[in-house]
Amino acid sequence: MKTLSFCFLGTFLAGSLSLLQAQVVETPVTIGLVQGGNPQGYIKRSNAQGILFSTAPGGQGQPITYDKIRGEGLEKAIRFEERVEVLGEPRALFSAEEYEEAARAFGNVARNYEIIINVPDNFALEAFFYGAESLRRAGNYSALASAMDLPQAPLIEKLLGERYQRSYEFLKLWALFGAEKFDELETALGIFQEAVVGEAKLLSSPSYKNLPSSELAQIAYLRAHVMKSKGNKTVALDDYYRAFTLAYGNDNRLAKSAMLSALNLHAEDPSFEKEGSPVQSQVQALAYLFSKRFDASELPENIQPFAQRPAVDPILQAAPKEEGAEGEAPAADGAEAAKADAPAEPEMKKDEE
């Protein structure tokens, strides 16, 4: 596996990191052998069959196959002494939602600890995974597509635990999007849609299966781009609106991107230039909502003037009835009247680590 292939995650924001930190040539571990106790030492290399293990720093090392180490599957008795320390900074950046910096930091770890990439549940592959996830959350989808095309990516499915697998499936979807492979993406999204049978054939697009809102937001956003690429702007708009509605409040970057995509698609409508058109009303409502949640200066210049509260027509009052008219209920007074006329209070609805 080429060392250079890891550079991508670590350098998509800045120049090569090769001068910042040399690749690690050995990393301290404690292993639990089926026979032979729990020796401490260093992993110098790894492959699909086992590790090259030395009990002294700089030693030549001897091969130990995974079947000689206690544990089944991914639960091998291999403890990496540097795991917590090495992943500390990138994890902190990820938690702080500084995803561009997190991608660079995780990529640096993945590159420099490539010697353990084939060990079950190793932290170099964990760093690769979170570097890719950071790219997704940063919106750098073309970079994500390139990262997911590297030979390390399929190792996620083989060498990391169950908790990574659902997100890995979504990373593959976003990679198709980043590579603009819309036909493949449309096919991949099919597993998240209900079968089109019976009355469902009357719908403009297939309904989604019952999934968590965070997943549905991503799927809707991706299908919106697929529909847009096929010229089906009506369905694309429906999905953009669905995406930012589901992501609003729990995935700000996705919500913002979906809103901007919807606004840009509205602006492509020829009637957008017509004063007072329904499209302008939709743009104004959405642009105003955007300005209340995000910075209005991030709106396209041709849409920024619409980022103001839409005018509301005055409510027409019915003519008062004469006192004592037939069928009129006795008037409530004071607080009781106000309470009777007040609308019900809306329910306030309020998301990996």
Give a verbal description of the structure.
This protein folds into two domains: 3-180, no CATH class; 184-306, no CATH class. It has 13 helices and five strands. The chain has helices spanning 7-11, 83-95, 99-112, 123-138, 141-148, 155-159, 165-178, 182-189, 213-229, 233-247, 252-267, 278-293, 334-341; strands at 27-31, 40-46, 50-54, 62-65, 78-80. The chain has a five-stranded antiparallel sheet, with no helix packed on it. Helix 5 (141-148) packs across helix 7 (165-178), helix 9 packs antiparallel against helix 10 (233-247) and helix 11 (252-267) runs antiparallel to helix 12. The two termini are 31 Å apart.
Entry keywords:
353 residues, alpha+beta, 13 helices, 7% strand, elongated
Summarize this structure briefly.
The chain has 353 residues and is of the alpha+beta class. The chain has 13 helices and five strands.
Overall number of strands: 5
| Shape type | elongated
What structural category do the secondary elements indicate? alpha+beta
Number of helices: 13
Helices, strands, pairings?
Layout: H1 7-11, E1 27-31, E2 40-46, E3 50-54, E4 62-65, E5 78-80, H2 83-95, H3 99-112, H4 123-138, H5 141-148, H6 155-159, H7 165-178, H8 182-189, H9 213-229, H10 233-247, H11 252-267, H12 278-293, H13 334-341
Antiparallel strand pairs: 1-2, 1-5, 2-3, 3-4
Helix pairs in contact: 2-3, 2-4, 3-4, 4-5, 4-7, 5-7, 7-9, 8-9, 9-10, 10-11, 11-12
